[in-house]
Amino acid sequence: MEGLLIGRFQPFHLGHLEALRFALSKVDKLWVGLGSSNKPVQKNNPFSAEERKEMILSSIDDSMKEKISIYFIPDLDDHVKWIEKIDSIVPKFDIVFSNDKLTAHLYSRRSVQVIPIPFLKRDELSGTNIRDLIITDQKWENLVPEGTINFLINNSAKKRLKNL
Known about the structure:
By secondary structure, the protein is of the alpha/beta class. Helix content is about 45%, strand content about 15%. It is globular, with a radius of gyration of 16 Å. The termini are far apart.
């Protein structure tokens, strides 16, 4: 059975890692969609799709890498067209993992099972919070996996975030 999990992963954090683990406990293969892949680097989307892919792959173990495939999912202004676009990018899937009510509604109308993802420390584990902690020189390293820490440090994330 195959599943789909879409996120922006700005940056990839421990909540995202737990979501991947949760999804992989339900499916054999997981298609990971990097949302907003067509957006330019900006304050709320400071990392490109390629950079987010690098963060994810550097943060997961080989057994997870064998079970996931990463796809770039562009934003569209029309949700129905967005789902059709996903179908043209991602192989067939049986389950969508999502907490977004509109996404759940649209897929349930297509007879695709939608499973909500349990949130892990949602107040702390949000991309916005982590980006704010980086900018303000507060402790953030305990909120992201080792691979993401290395990526953010090696790519001068603090400087980039401050400049945006």
